[in-house]
Specification:
heterodimer, B: mainly alpha
Chain lengths: 178, 120
């Protein structure tokens, strides 16, 4: 009996620790705002359903684009190494890019789960404040995905700079298209 | 051999076909459960546009690039230009996709409350 209780306690502790913590800025709503959320929440959920379809395509296209770009980078990096050219920035940027793409994948799953919880929240008219908290949490998770996209874009710029440097070394005088 | 175990073995021996069917169903349920868990937890669910309700957006999917850059060969002006074309094409495709940083989920866009109300 004691062991069962300990196992339950440990399981609860694990669940609490494993749950990703999101600190959405809780701005207290006044009565008028709560009423507005209550009145509009069904419409918001319907807008979210439309948005979900668009974002799923964006996520899919972005993921495929990143994978293809990483494949291109890996091919050029191998070729550069085989030709004994010294451009360590290529390796560093590609490794960082891979890490960031993994972060993007992981953060998108968390964001999407939160998005679904908000979109399917059944008692939004009965519990408008809880609904609004879920919405805030979803916004914060979306911002994290946006940060990943921004970081990846910067890494792609860095890779382009290294490529320009290599072009100069090899003797290509053409400017890179932006 | 203990009597209860012998009895179970005897019953299983007499109903081999039923036991086999039950085992197959059990394994099927187990494998389906594992597959669904992997489908959900790996993020494949989020990418699966073959789900019902996504018919209207399937046309917006970018086609996979068929052009590859070889990992072998010399590095010269021509190969770097070839790479540049592929890289720039990938980048321009990425630039045309949502960056998840707009105000799509903002209070104003969703019509939750106006800015003036937020400041109250």
């Amino acid at each position: 009996m004691k062991i069962t209780r300990r196992v339950s306690l440990l399981a609860c502790l694990f669940v609490v620790l494993a749950t990703p913590t999101v600190h959405a800025e809780a701005v207290p709503l006044n009565d008028q705002q709560i009423e507005l959320v209550r009145r509009n929440c069904i419409q918001i959920q319907s807008s979210m359903q439309r948005l979900e379809r668009i974002e799923t395509v964006a996520r899919r296209n972005r993921g495929v684009g990143y994978e293809s770009t990483l494949k291109l980078m890996a091919a050029l990096n191998s070729r550069v190494a085989a030709n004994k050219l010294n451009v360590p920035e290529f390796i560093v940027t590609a490794a960082e890019m891979e890490k960031r793409v993994n972060d993007f994948d992981r953060n998108y799953i968390t964001y999407n789960n939160s998005f679904h919880t908000t979109m399917k929240f059944a008692n939004c008219q009965q519990q408008p404040v809880t609904f609004y908290d879920y919405l805030n949490q979803t916004r914060e998770l979306r911002a994290r995905v946006g940060t990943d996209v921004e970081a990846i874009s910067k890494l792609l710029d860095d890779y382009q700079k290294s490529l320009d440097k290599l072009k100069q070394t090899v003797g290509v005088n053409t400017e890179s298209p932006q | 051999m203990r009597p209860s175990f012998a009895r179970i073995k005897n019953v299983l021996g007499r109903h081999q076909f039923t036991v086999a069917i039950a085992l197959v169903i059990g394994v099927g349920i187990l494998m389906t459960t594992i597959s669904m868990y992997l489908y959900t937890s790996s993020g494949a669910l989020q990418l699966d546009l073959s789900r019902p309700g996504y018919e209207s957006v399937r046309d917006d999917i970018n086609k996979d690039s068929k052009k590859d850059f070889s990992s072998f060969g010399p590095i010269d002006a021509g190969t770097l230009e070839d790479f540049q074309k592929l890289y720039s094409s990938q980048r321009s495709q990425l630039n045309s996709i949502s960056e998840f940083n707009d105000d799509t989920l903002s209070d104003d866009t969703l019509g939750v409350m106006s800015t003036s109300m937020q400041n109250q």
